[in-house]
Please model this.
Amino acid sequence: MKILVTVKRVPDVETQLKPNAEGTDFVRDNIKWVVNPFDEIAIEEALRVKEKNAGSEVVLVSIGPKTAQEQLRTGLAMGADRAILVVADENLESLAVAKVIAKLVEQEKPEIVIMGKQAVDYDMGAAGQMLAELLGWPQATFASKVELGGGEAKVTREVDGGLETVACPLPAIVTADLRLNEPRYASLPGIMKARKKELKEIPVADLGIATAPKAKIVKLETPPKRQAGKKVGTVQELVQLLHDEAKVI
Model:
């Protein structure tokens, strides 16, 4: 079985991002970049499938600048077999990302594509669904459990009302939710081996895909500072403030 896993380079969630002078993007200098946490979960799930199915191959795919090699090497150190970096200096929209991945799927012909349900930078959560539509493949999003066998994927999904279990034939798209698994740490031997594993670079222009954005960011700004709260001495004082100032009762 061949498993394709997407890996996005995102700012560390502990990083304090600041809008640039034009207010059209955040400042990207001096930022710690990491693997998107949901994509780490997707990598871990692919590795577990590989461990249960001898002879399987896990292929990582990322779209971004050349420096995204670092995040792909992280996935290779976890245990993935090889990686593909589609080099694109501009930030691609979800549809363009889906089109790029679809082109690679046509070339690689995996039995399943596992993706993080969303990226923690823009929180769009749309590329997986768009990819399924472009390929005409079934999809199972927000997966908290995945079982493969008999040419199908049985997926437990997290929905508003609780849990939903669906089955779909392979090939299929699965997007990983937070509770699917806990990603492993890369071991020292794994880190050493990752340096020798194949990491292929493809310029995005070579794929013949239109990547021009359909929308633009008009204004990006930090949230306004919240006013300090008040401490009250009695319940009566609290009720009075809720009535007179907050006007909620």
About this structure: The longest strand covers residues 139-149. Residues 118 and 125 are 4 Å apart (CA to CA). The first helix runs from residue 37 to 52. Residues 2-246 form a domain with the Rossmann fold fold (CATH 3.40.50.620).
